[in-house]
Design brief:
This protein is an alpha+beta fold. It has 4 helices and 11 strands, in the order H-E-E-E-E-H-H-E-H-E-E-E-E-E-E. The N and C termini lie far apart (about 110 Å).
Length: about 280
């Protein structure tokens, strides 16, 4: 009887051990694996992002402070009635040596997902950007950390200390600028009519190192269009409001008299036909 109880207890103990062992093995084989995650530490570097392309570079000319007579003399040939002469005093500033190119403006369009303006089939690269509205020009200038020139700054920089109709003197030729040479100034000899824009910097600069201030493309200014005053002004910014924005300089298809230093034209801020951009630095 005692032996029977002993063997019964031994068998029971072995069975319990086998059952426990079998459960452990069963747990290993059938229990679902719980995924583990390595939580990032606060000092771990974040996932690298795609680097932004740098803004296009700009070459600057330093424009010294000074005063000048803005507008045109009543004796200047082919002057317009809205070119009232008056003295203007300006602080120094920096202006881009060249008109903004398609290469520079296209980088802006790609970065901001804007539609690129038409190049009229003439090409892009170092050709001056055309077909941009005043609103587009201001947006580009802001993106570049710059601004558009005031009309007074533009004319002052164009003249570069001269008082003649052009910074080249009393006449301008198509070897000095890109305009409609078939319509020369004051009956001078006719020249080439290229019928399109030329690469920036294709002609000699003015005395302050600025290229293409006469012809090639008209250039937007920041001012609203309005009647010029007759009294002395300091760093004028034009009228407080208006309908049209000013652009200066003449273009590739302009007659010579439409490329004079005092010339200005205007249109609505959305107008863009053959108009380009020149920048002024904020620094």
């Amino acid at each position: 009887m005692i032996k029977s109880v002993f063997f019964l207890n031994i068998n029971l103990l072995v069975g319990i051990v086998l059952i426990q062992t079998g459960c452990k093995e069963n747990d290993k084989s059938t229990s679902p694996k719980v995924p583990t995650y390595n939580m990032p530490q606060s000092n771990e570097p974040t996932k690298p992002t795609k680097p932004k392309k740098p803004r296009p570079s700009v070459e600057w000319s330093y424009i010294p402070s000074g005063s000048f007579i803005m507008g045109s003399s009543i004796y200047e040939a082919n002057r317009l009635p809205d070119e009232n002469q008056h003295q203007v005093i300006l602080s120094a500033f920096k202006m881009s040596k060249n008109e903004v190119t398609f290469e520079q403006y296209d980088a802006f369009c790609e970065a901001t997902r804007r539609e690129k303006p038409s190049d009229e089939g003439w090409g892009r690269g170092r050709l001056p950007v055309i077909n941009v509205s005043w609103n587009d020009a201001r947006a580009f200038a802001s993106w570049m950390g710059c601004r558009l020139p005031t009309q007074a700054e533009w004319e002052y920089a164009c003249r570069a200390g001269t008082t003649t109709p052009f910074y080249t003197g009393y006449n301008i030729t198509t070897s000095q600028a890109n305009f409609n040479g078939k319509q020369p100034y004051m009956g001078n000899a006719s020249g080439i009519f290229r019928k399109k824009t030329t690469e920036v910097g294709s002609f000699a600069p003015n005395p302050w190192g600025l290229y293409d201030m006469h012809g090639n493309v008209w250039e937007w200014c920041s001012d609203w269009y309005g009647e010029l005053p007759t009294e002395t002004q300091t760093n004028p910014k034009g009228p407080l409001n208006g309908i049209y924005r000013v652009y200066c300089g003449g273009g590739w298809r302009s007659d010579a008299d439409r490329c004079r230093s005092a010339i200005r034209d205007s249109n609505g801020p959305e107008y863009l036909y053959y108009i380009g951009i020149r920048l002024v630095s904020l620094n």
